[in-house]
Amino acid sequence: MRSINSTTANTTQSASSPFSVMSTNFQSSSLVTQRLDWESLRKQARQLENETDSKLVAFSKLCSNYSTSVITSGKTPSSNTSSDLLFITLSNEIEDLLSKLNAINTKMSECLSAEGGMNSNATVHTLQRHRDILRDYSHEYEKTKRTITSYKEREQLLSLSSNQRETGLSNRRMDGSSNNGSTSLFMKEYDHLKNSHSLIDQQIEMAEMTKENLQSQSKSLRMLQQKMNTIAQKFPMINNLVQKIKLKKRKDSLILARMSNGLGTSNPSKDYDVLFKIVLIGDSAVGKTSLLQRFAEQHFSDTHITTIGVDFKLRTIQVGNVRVKLQVWDTAGQEKFRVITKTYYRNAAGIIVAYDVTNGESFANTKRWIEEVKNNCGDDGVPMVLVGNKCDCTDKVVSLQDQEEYAKLMKLKFFEASAKENINVDEVFIELTRLILERQERVNKDTSRKDNEKLDLRESNKTNKKSKDKCC
Asked: Has the keyword GTP-binding been applied to this entry (predicted)?
């Protein structure tokens, strides 16, 4: 009896094993299909986000052009037909892209919520990031659209002729009817324009009076200078005294200029001694915005929107005896914003070239960024440091030895940093500030030395000339 039961059980187990194998294969193939669908949806989402980004940039430029034409030239709506058509076209395209992006996010959410789906922390984080990008894009679009609409409404008010304005206002006052909202808005705009014109006229009159006063003072000073030169030529002792006074004033001005640079001095009227502009550059997605937020605001966020154009933040630090306020500019690393970011190299006191230690291409592109700095800032020795971000990651592809050799080759200092774990972030900015202060002090010393040499040369020439006159 036992043998019969065991035989039956073995038969049942052998019969059910093919079905279990088929079920396992079906589940694995289902997971592979879900993985492929997820990657395809992510790729579509990134493409739509890039297209929406470029459309929003064009939409913002249209808003700027529209506001300029309305405020400065006062064009009527009929003359802005091309701008209105472009506004409608861009609005429809952006709304269509946002709708598609919303549908893609919905499909990604359904892919995660499916039974047996790959509902991991990484995928949930990725989906949340795409949702945040969609929310920010929608907010930016609505804000720009409201701005352009307000300019269009204001333009329609300003397009009314003066005759219609006066006639309409007088009729409403005679009839005793209450003004509606548009009439009230128009009256406020009309009064604002009248006050603006009167203020401009007053400013022009004041500028003309100031110009006349300055011209009369300049004329008086020239006459006084001529009299002083005549007296100095007649009396050599007075001439020597005047030259000594000029020399003393020149040396005092050099001392004051050196003190005004903030080196070793304090300014009680401000919370800093000197202000430096620092530009943060590098490829897209290397963590430039995260480094800036960690340094300026002491926090880190896992979700970021790609920087459009430029942004900057401020922070005051103490380096030695000098209180330095740093104005750090965060630039977009994408190629389409390269024309915008080039203008922000002007008057830069220091440069931070950032790269991602988990991305070898970003490290290789630092050479191109350094060449761009030299082309825009000149070879006058603007201090630069290299920063390898995301050093806390385990999937590093750029070794520490390669970074050290490259920094030695380029004659630059480098740091491995992590905005997420707050590793070497403050040290990067403190070291760059120290290099800027040292360079400024060298420049001031060289300038002071050259000026003193020029003054000494002038004095020696005058002395030689006097001795020759006496000999003759």
From this structure: yes
